[in-house]
Amino acid sequence: MVLLYLCGHSVLPRPNTMTTFDNLLLDLDAASGILTITLNRPTKLNALNSATISDIHGAMQQALDDDQVRGIILTGSGEKAFVAGADIAELSGLNDISGRCFAEQGQDAFCLIEESTKPVIAAVNGFALGGGAELAMACHLRVASENARFGQPEVNLGLIPGYGGTQRLAQLVGKGKALEMMLTGDPIKADEALRLGLVNHVVPQAELLSFCQQLLTRILSKAPLAVGLVIDCVNAYYDSERHGYQTEANSFSRCCGSDDFREGTSAFLDKRPASFTGN
What we know:
By secondary structure, the protein is an alpha/beta fold. Helices cover 45% and strands 17% of the residues. The protein is built from 11 helices and 12 strands. It has a 6-stranded mixed β-sheet with strand order 3-4-5-7-9-12, with helices on both faces. Strand 3 (24-29) and strand 4 (34-39) form a beta hairpin. The two termini are 32 Å apart. GO terms for molecular function: isomerase activity; lyase activity.
């Protein structure tokens, strides 16, 4: 798939069938509606380059447009790295003009993940450094294997995080710790990431994907409209152009007028499982 990109403006065709991507593996479980997207550049430890960012953007847009997809798991191939960072060979050729385009391309793709009303879980199976940490932070939830490492080491290259890391890391772990991680470039282990709230769970490597599938299945058993609106309301808190409380009130009102609300309350009163439709 070709993604036409001009500094903040992307034009992506909406496919009717699931497209394949050069740097990703896509596996849709039709029974559960869970799409697993695996970054697949094992010889580069799944490092991000422009082509891979375009693939992520394309796969996410395709997932959002596909009614069969209800939730998404993002992970990396192999057992060493989720994403070890950006592709340094490509980075080394940037200047001030192309650097802005490079950053905005990644920000566009990662904002598409963050703003998805379909839940997205990062299954972090190893190193999540630089752009890899930023990709994980764009997801709604993060589950790490015990060997995972997180870091923003861009200062070692004379750079700063460019895919939203300066914003999301501070939101997740607080200003002081975020500054320490970005100013020193030092990585942290999975257990510290859990203590800081950077990840939701830490599990053995062999159990990572099954744990994420079980967690996502629990989420997908809830009312789809409510799930999507929860994500939107939480995002509104961090958006200076939106009023979080008003967004919440508007979304609560929308839920009250939905079929899912009537089904959920009826099922509770009838002491039976709810059957939600997303309407």
